[in-house]
């Protein structure tokens, strides 16, 4: 517990027990509140995914990876690429999608606090947007904006759409649909692991913004 307190996960406080003497107790911090299931920005699925033995184990094989010919430590340990492993292990990829969705909930709260970012954007494409948690939040906030989520076909299959939110199956590592790139003011959200890079392209301005 002292390590967790030092790391800011918990804090200490003085508490009254059955007797009048004060005892040291532990309380949640702003960081650990993000792990509560009833929190608006519950990040527990993201933490569980990052601590999954499937992702943690390759770190213990860095020596073999350096001496071998595999492209990544993940491939050196599991004998296949990250995406190939996901195709063969539905439970793992489902947990990963859930973790991405929980991370997107937190990013959605940040985006709502800075809505001016999207003032001049008519359409938005969330590349690698998973199940569309972030794009759906933006679409609800901007009914005039046409939002599209691009992710693997099995990820976006049968997801509910709306008038201004569509899902397109594809592989962002191979190509991004051609027509995505030719709107006059199109926002491009590129999801890299658990981070986000926001760019919007304009025909009249060479401008980009990041969140």
Separation, N- and C-terminal Cα atoms: 33 Å
Topology, number of strands: 7
Q: Please state how the strands of the largest beta sheet are arranged side by side.
A: 5-4-3-6-7
> In CATH, what is the homologous superfamily of the domain at 114-202?
Vaccinia Virus protein VP39
Tell me roughly what share of residues is in helical segments.
Answer: 25-40%
How many helices? The count is 9
As a whole number of angstroms, the C-alpha radius of gyration is 21 Å
CATH fold title of the domain at 114-202: Rossmann fold
Could you tell me the strand content as a percent range? Answer: 15-25%
Structural class: alpha/beta
Low-confidence stretches: 181-186, 192-211
Order of helices and strands: HEEHHHHHHEHEHEEE
Q: Which CATH C-level class of the domain at 114-202 is it?
A: Alpha Beta
Shape: flat
GO molecular function, one term: O-methyltransferase activity
Pfam families: Methyltransf_2
Domain O-methyltransferase C-terminal: 59-177
Protein name: O-methyltransferase C-terminal domain-containing protein
């Amino acid at each position: 517990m002292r390590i967790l307190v030092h790391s800011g996960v918990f804090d200490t406080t003085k508490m009254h027990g059955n007797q009048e003497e004060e005892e040291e107790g532990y309380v949640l911090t702003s960081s650990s509140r993000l792990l509560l299931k009833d929190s608006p920005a519950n990040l527990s699925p993201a933490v569980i995914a990052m601590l999954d033995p499937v992702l943690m184990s390759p770190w213990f094989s860095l020596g073999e990876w350096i001496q071998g010919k595999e492209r990544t430590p993940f491939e050196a340990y599991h004998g296949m690429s990250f995406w190939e492993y996901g195709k063969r292990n539905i439970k793992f990829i489902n947990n990963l999608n859930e973790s991405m969705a929980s991370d997107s909930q937190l990013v959605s709260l940040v985006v709502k606090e800075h809505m001016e970012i999207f003032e001049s954007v008519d359409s938005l494409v969330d590349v690698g947007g998973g199940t569309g948690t972030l794009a759906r939040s933006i679409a609800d906030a901007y009914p005039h904006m046409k939002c599209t989520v691009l992710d693997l076909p099995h990820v976006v299959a049968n997801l509910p759409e709306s008038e201004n939110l569509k899902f397109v199956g594809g592989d962002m590592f191979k190509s991004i649909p051609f027509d995505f790139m030719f709107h006059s003011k199109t926002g491009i959200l590129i999801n890299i692991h658990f981070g986000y890079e926001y760019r919007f392209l304009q025909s009249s301005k060479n401008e980009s913004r990041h969140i």
